[in-house]
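Bumping with the actual sequence this time:
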Amino acid sequence: MVKNEPEPKRKNKPRRKNKPVNPLKKKPFKIDIGRALELRYKNGMSYSEIARHFGVAKSGVHAILEKFTNLIREPEELEFYEKYKTKLLSSAELKILEKLMDDETIKGASLNNAAYAFQNLFNANRLERGKSTSNIDLHASLEEIASLEAEYEELKGMLED
């Protein structure tokens, strides 16, 4: 090496020795999130109890379930929603339909967006009532069978007379 030449600059920064480690990235937790939520909100278990149940750290359980705390404020609220979901969807569907019928909405907003929202609520409501496309076909078939049975009984009665 020649004495007058400057040393080449390092491209990489030196590593920090005491870099903090995120425990969530280090090893994935093996938690059934649905079961953990059930233990927390339905059974009232603490994060420590859930952690013991799954054999993981309390901080890991807290970090995973924390994402859901804003969604599930109170278990009773969720039970109420589940119990009245069909009525709530019908009510929301009606509000959107009313909004669709409003002249100001039609003039100022994209009708396509409003129709799309209505379609989604309608489909959610239809499915909640158990009227999927295959169920509708089944109901139509059952109605047809009932109609044919009634017609058969009527014709049978006419022949007996």
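The tokens above came from a reply further down the thread. The chain has nine helices and no strands.
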